[in-house]
UniProtKB/TrEMBL annotation:
Gene: xylB
Catalytic reaction annotation: D-xylulose + ATP = D-xylulose 5-phosphate + ADP + H(+)
Domain of life: Bacteria
Alphabetized UniProt keyword annotations: ATP-binding, Carbohydrate metabolism, Kinase, Nucleotide-binding, Transferase, Xylose metabolism
EC numbers for this chain: 2.7.1.17
Residues the entry annotates as binding substrate: 81-82
UniProt name for this protein: Xylulose kinase
Organism (species): Hungatella effluvii
Family statement: Belongs to the FGGY kinase family.
Length: 507
């Protein structure tokens, strides 16, 4: 038999899945790790936690599946985008990774705009300078921790650090590298102009591959630890969103998906470089060679629900343990009984600032309209609705850019929730569908590995063959109008609070 492994280094956990050639899940494993928030708006994780989670889960899936070491032909790695991993000469981690939702780099973004006009940034990198993206974080370390910058010999993204651990190779691929703000996105290569302007030495960065190209093979000590062979190939892989696109079959024009992971993303495939001149949504290289994608991002999507659950729902957590069920299943059960609009309660999900549409690192979360009739279940539903309003903001911008789809695929942890998918269908006013395999990014990179190993002809052909729809949720016409009115009020609230957010940040 021939098998493929997909690894997804998410923010909440690493999920590793071993698939057969038909895309059936043979074994899966996951390991959680902490998110550190040393200051308001900062977010860090330890690359060593990702490393340990990857090695443990790969070992577990190989063992559980009973696959012989020569049967695992290829591995694809997917991961949270934009995180900065810095290694010294010996390949040791210099400091914790500053991850995608960290908002400390407002001043560095200003610095980038002084160095080069916004229009030129958009021309080259397809995006304006952004606080959560890697370039601003590199400047932050250089400005605030010069001793760490001095020691740095390799700059890697989270999943590319895992590639280094597995293969010893320093490399990246176009989809994830697009989120560093150092890539010439239309031409799919490092931008010498940007590197020169920022005074960043190109030798710090790895070689850039296409997502299905083979980048290396497994190191002997890792092969021994995990039960893999030193012949197992590791392909470029993809940023988690480009990977989820492949795993949900979003590889042709006119197709799109929404993922609710820690972040939330509305993503559309594009055979052209399509740019929002206002910079509200991102344009990146897709994992399908010679194509791109556009995506709007909600910073705190699943993060909002997890935050509320962790801080205020100990009762749900204990009940879930008693009943031996997933705590989110209990939450979904209870919020299904609350009416759309949560009886006039609106949540703004700006716990980590917001990207689309505001690009504002200073805004923060709000419950608006709290009344004495509201219960915890109302607040939970409002949290999920607030995230859905934000995702709807993303979808509206894609529509404004001429990207309109009849059906939206759904994935990520939150995409498993039928109530959350119903909210999205009602707000987007289109059907929201799932695929048979729920592990979007892991399947996506396993497919890329299969292409790289010659098991599949192309990404598109593999998607046609392996991916099939499971469930479709249509819009409920009786609440579409109601949600439109709530969404309008939601949008007005940010405008009303914008100046107060600045004052709060300055306190
Ligand atoms: N059954 C569920 N219903 C609603 N939300 C869920 C459910 N399961 C997970 N989630 C949400 O999804 C998030 C995790 O999604 P996941 O895609 O695994 O994230 P990541 O890739 O960032 O690690 C959780 O924080 C939670 O908010
Ligand atoms: O920053 C982005 C995309 O621009 C996020 O989508 C990260 O890639 C994190 O992903 P999850 O851990 O939420 O899947």
């Amino acid at each position: 038999m021939e098998y493929l492994i997909g690894i997804d280094v998410g923010t909440s956990a690493t999920k590793t899945v071993l698939f057969d050639k038909k895309g059936n899940i043979i074994a899966s494993a996951s390991r959680e790790y902490p998110l550190y928030q040393p200051h308001n708006g900062w977010a860090e994780q330890k690359p060593e936690d990702w490393r340990d989670a990857v090695i443990a889960t790969v070992e577990e899936v190989v063992k559980k599946s009973g696959a012989g070491k020569d049967e695992v032909k290829g591995i694809g790695i997917s991961g949270q985008m934009h995180g900065l991993v810095m290694l010294d000469e010996a390949g040791n981690v210099i400091r914790p990774s500053i991850i995608w939702c960290d908002q400390r780099t407002g001043e560095e973004v200003e610095e980038m705009l002084e160095i080069m006009p916004r229009e030129r940034w958009i021309e080259i990198t397809a995006n304006p300078p952004l606080t959560g993206w890697t370039a601003a974080k590199i400047l932050w370390v250089r400005n605030h921790e010069p001793e760490n910058y001095e020691r740095c010999r390799h700059i890697l993204l989270p999943k590319d650090y895992i590639r280094y651990i597995l293969t010893g190779v320093f490399a990246t691929e176009v989809s994830d590298a697009s989120g560093m703000q150092l890539l010439d996105v239309p031409n799919r290569c490092w931008s010498d102009e940007v590197l020169e302007k920022l005074n960043i030495d190109k030798s710090l960065l790895g070689k850039v591959y296409e997502s299905c190209e083979v980048t290396g093979t497994i190191l002997p000590d890792i092969a021994e630890k995990t039960g893999l062979s030193t012949e197992t190939k590791v392909v470029g892989g993809a940023g988690d969103n480009a990977a989820a696109a492949v795993g949900t079959g979003v590889v042709k024009d006119g197709t799109a998906f929404t993922t609710i992971g820690t972040s939330g993303v509305v993503f559309a495939h594009s055979s052209q470089v399509t740019i929002d001149p206002k910079g509200r949504v991102h344009t990146c290289c897709a994992a399908v060679p010679g194509t791109w994608h556009v995506m709007g991002v909600t910073q705190a999507a699943g993060l909002s629900l997890k935050w509320f659950k962790d801080n205020f729902c100990q009762d749900y957590v204990e009940e879930a343990v008693r009943q031996d069920v997933d705590v989110y299943d209990l939450i979904n059960r209870d919020i299904a009984n609350i009416p759309a609009g949560s009886d006039k309660l609106i949540y703004l999900p700006y716990l980590m600032g917001e990207r689309t549409p505001h690009l504002d690192p200073d805004c923060r979360g709000v419950f608006f309209g709290l009344s004495a009739i509201h219960t915890k279940a109302h607040m939970l539903r409002a949290v999920m609705e607030g995230v859905s309003y934000s995702l709807s903001d993303c979808n509206d911008i894609l529509k404004e850019m001429g990207i309109d789809v009849d059906c939206m695929m759904a994935c990520g942890g939150g995409g498993k929730s039928p109530v959350w998918r119903q909210m999205l269908a009602d707000l987007y006013d289109c059907s929201v569908n799932t695929v048979r395999q729920t592990e979007g990014p892991a399947l996506g990179v396993a497919i890329l590995a299969g292409v790289g190993c010659g098991i599949y002809e192309s990404v598109e052909e593999a998607c046609d063959e392996l991916i099939s729809e499971a469930q479709s949720t249509g819009a409920d016409s009786s609440v579409v109008g109601k949600y439109k009115a709530y969404h309008e009020l939601y949008k007005a609230l940010y405008g009303n609070l914008k100046n107060s957010y600045k004052k709060l940040a300055a306190l």
